[in-house]
Design goal:
Elements lengths: L2 E4 L3 H26 L1 H22 L7 E4 H6 L5 H13 L5 H15 L1
Antiparallel strand pairs: 1-2
Length: 114
Protein backbone atom coordinates (compact mmCIF):
# COMPACT_ATOMS: atom_id res chain seq x y z
CA UNK A 1 0.00 0.00 0.00
CA UNK A 2 1.44 3.37 -1.02
CA UNK A 3 0.22 6.77 0.10
CA UNK A 4 0.97 9.72 -2.15
CA UNK A 5 0.90 13.36 -1.11
CA UNK A 6 -1.24 15.50 -3.41
CA UNK A 7 -1.12 19.25 -3.84
CA UNK A 8 -4.07 21.42 -4.94
CA UNK A 9 -4.49 22.33 -8.59
CA UNK A 10 -2.93 25.49 -10.02
CA UNK A 11 -6.41 27.03 -10.39
CA UNK A 12 -7.37 26.32 -6.81
CA UNK A 13 -4.04 27.66 -5.57
CA UNK A 14 -4.34 30.79 -7.73
CA UNK A 15 -7.77 31.53 -6.26
CA UNK A 16 -6.37 31.04 -2.75
CA UNK A 17 -3.48 33.34 -3.64
CA UNK A 18 -5.82 36.10 -4.86
CA UNK A 19 -8.06 35.81 -1.81
CA UNK A 20 -4.95 35.91 0.41
CA UNK A 21 -3.79 39.13 -1.26
CA UNK A 22 -7.22 40.70 -0.69
CA UNK A 23 -7.13 39.69 2.99
CA UNK A 24 -3.62 41.12 3.39
CA UNK A 25 -4.74 44.45 1.91
CA UNK A 26 -7.81 44.45 4.19
CA UNK A 27 -5.58 43.59 7.14
CA UNK A 28 -3.21 46.50 6.57
CA UNK A 29 -5.88 49.06 5.66
CA UNK A 30 -8.76 48.19 7.97
CA UNK A 31 -8.19 45.39 10.48
CA UNK A 32 -4.81 46.38 11.97
CA UNK A 33 -5.78 50.06 12.50
CA UNK A 34 -9.12 49.14 14.10
CA UNK A 35 -8.36 45.87 15.91
CA UNK A 36 -4.68 46.12 16.90
CA UNK A 37 -3.26 42.72 17.90
CA UNK A 38 -6.09 40.81 16.27
CA UNK A 39 -5.35 42.70 13.06
CA UNK A 40 -1.71 41.62 13.21
CA UNK A 41 -2.74 37.98 13.68
CA UNK A 42 -5.30 38.30 10.85
CA UNK A 43 -2.71 39.75 8.48
CA UNK A 44 -0.09 37.18 9.50
CA UNK A 45 -2.45 34.28 8.76
CA UNK A 46 -3.45 35.89 5.45
CA UNK A 47 0.23 36.27 4.61
CA UNK A 48 0.91 32.56 5.32
CA UNK A 49 -2.08 31.49 3.20
CA UNK A 50 -0.92 33.74 0.37
CA UNK A 51 2.66 32.45 0.50
CA UNK A 52 1.59 28.79 0.49
CA UNK A 53 -0.84 29.26 -2.38
CA UNK A 54 1.62 31.44 -4.28
CA UNK A 55 4.29 28.74 -3.92
CA UNK A 56 1.83 26.18 -5.32
CA UNK A 57 0.98 28.46 -8.26
CA UNK A 58 4.48 29.57 -9.20
CA UNK A 59 6.45 26.42 -8.36
CA UNK A 60 6.42 22.96 -9.89
CA UNK A 61 7.00 21.35 -6.48
CA UNK A 62 4.26 22.97 -4.43
CA UNK A 63 3.06 22.08 -0.95
CA UNK A 64 0.74 19.10 -0.60
CA UNK A 65 -2.37 19.24 1.51
CA UNK A 66 -3.75 15.74 1.11
CA UNK A 67 -2.70 12.09 0.96
CA UNK A 68 -4.12 9.49 -1.40
CA UNK A 69 -3.87 5.75 -0.87
CA UNK A 70 -3.04 4.60 -4.41
CA UNK A 71 -4.55 1.13 -4.04
CA UNK A 72 -7.81 2.39 -2.55
CA UNK A 73 -8.05 5.05 -5.25
CA UNK A 74 -7.63 2.50 -8.02
CA UNK A 75 -9.15 -0.67 -6.59
CA UNK A 76 -12.50 0.64 -5.37
CA UNK A 77 -14.98 -2.21 -5.80
CA UNK A 78 -17.61 0.11 -7.28
CA UNK A 79 -15.45 0.90 -10.30
CA UNK A 80 -15.45 -1.22 -13.42
CA UNK A 81 -12.32 -2.62 -15.02
CA UNK A 82 -11.88 0.17 -17.61
CA UNK A 83 -12.27 2.98 -15.06
CA UNK A 84 -9.64 1.37 -12.80
CA UNK A 85 -7.18 1.20 -15.69
CA UNK A 86 -7.91 4.81 -16.69
CA UNK A 87 -7.36 6.03 -13.11
CA UNK A 88 -4.12 4.07 -12.89
CA UNK A 89 -2.94 5.48 -16.22
CA UNK A 90 -3.77 9.03 -15.07
CA UNK A 91 -1.65 8.56 -11.92
CA UNK A 92 1.27 7.41 -14.10
CA UNK A 93 0.85 10.26 -16.62
CA UNK A 94 0.65 12.83 -13.82
CA UNK A 95 3.90 11.50 -12.38
CA UNK A 96 2.28 10.37 -9.12
CA UNK A 97 3.47 6.76 -9.57
CA UNK A 98 6.45 5.27 -11.39
CA UNK A 99 6.33 2.85 -14.32
CA UNK A 100 7.21 -0.02 -11.99
CA UNK A 101 4.36 0.87 -9.62
CA UNK A 102 2.08 1.23 -12.64
CA UNK A 103 2.91 -2.32 -13.78
CA UNK A 104 2.39 -3.79 -10.28
CA UNK A 105 -0.99 -2.11 -9.86
CA UNK A 106 -2.04 -3.08 -13.39
CA UNK A 107 -1.28 -6.73 -12.61
CA UNK A 108 -3.39 -6.49 -9.45
CA UNK A 109 -6.29 -5.08 -11.46
CA UNK A 110 -6.02 -7.86 -14.04
CA UNK A 111 -5.73 -10.56 -11.36
CA UNK A 112 -8.75 -9.32 -9.38
CA UNK A 113 -11.04 -8.62 -12.33
CA UNK A 114 -10.25 -11.60 -14.54
Amino acid sequence: MRKVRVKPSKGQSFLGFLIGVVFIVLGFTIVIPKAGLFGLIWTGVALMITIINGYNVFSDRGISNDKVNVEEYIMSEKLDFEVKLRKLNKLKNDGVITDIEFQKQKEKIFNRDM
